[in-house]
Specification:
Number of helices: 10
Shape: globular
Helix content: over 70%
Mean pLDDT: 94
Largest sheet: none
Order of helices and strands: HHHHHHHHHH
Distance between the termini: 41 Å
Number of strands: 0
Strand content: under 5%
Structural class: mainly alpha
């Protein structure tokens, strides 16, 4: 029963992330030239993490991101069984969240300013999959490394951990939105891509491989940096 509650928390948290994060992008657009929507979208994603950290964090740890779960797995913080359960719940949550956005925007006749449910893409890097991969690897590395540091027993950040993580997600979005739309989260990319189809689906692999690679690198790096630090 405990695992089911964790998976349910991850499902809900990821659905909320997509509804409020991608939904904000759909409403206000993410044009870096006209930066209002750009900043609002970055803040939406970061603030969702802050809210969910204090909402479901005590239940599941509030990963709501397969890349974060992979980093925690490699760091020895969860079992393979839970990792699989988390990833399935996160992906289903992202799909459900996008489905809710589809209902709201289609039934309400609201224009989607992104043209694809806030899906990620390579337009900002002129279609270069290699550049997109580098962006996603680097940004996810920064994000997951921060999470591992903030949530370590030695960190002592206490109740401020969720705020620090949310602000970091906002920061990586501010840099990455104009390049790839900022994924750093395969589930967040999968849900919108399924509904958007077309180029969003054809480039989806970048937003799965990049974040997972960045998370794995962050976990290994943090293990090396933190090993023997008390000596």
């Amino acid at each position: 029963m405990g695992s089911i509650k964790k998976y349910a928390a991850e499902f809900i948290g990821t659905a909320v992330l997509v509804i409020l994060g991608c939904g904000t992008a759909m409403l206000v657009g993410c044009d870096a030239v006209n930066g209002g929507g750009y900043i609002l979208t970055a803040l939406a994603f970061g603030l969702v993490i802050v809210g969910m950290a204090y909402c479901v964090g005590n239940i599941s740890g509030c990963h709501i991101n397969p890349a974060v779960s992979l980093g925690v797995l490699i760091s020895g913080g969860m079992s393979v069984t839970d990792f699989i359960g988390y990833v399935v719940a996160q992906c289903l949550g992202a799909i459900a969240g996008t489905g809710i956005l589809s209902l709201i925007f289609n039934l309400g006749g609201v224009a989607d300013q992104t043209g694809g449910y806030g899906s990620n893409g390579l337009a900002g890097v002129n279609g270069s999959a290699a550049a997109g991969l580098i962006v996603e690897i680097v940004l996810t590395f920064i994000f997951v490394l921060t999470i591992l540091g903030v949530t370590s027993k030695e960190a002592g950040h206490g109740s401020f951990g969720g705020l620090i993580i949310g602000l970091t997600l906002t920061l990586v979005h501010i840099f990455g939105i104009g390049l790839t739309g900022t994924s750093v989260n395969p589930a967040r990319s999968i849900g919108p891509a399924i509904f958007a189809g077309g180029s969003a689906l054809s480039s989806l692999w970048v937003f799965i491989v990049g974040p997972l690679a960045g998370a794995a690198l962050a976990a290994v790096c943090y293990k090396v940096l933190s090993s023997g630090k008390s000596e």
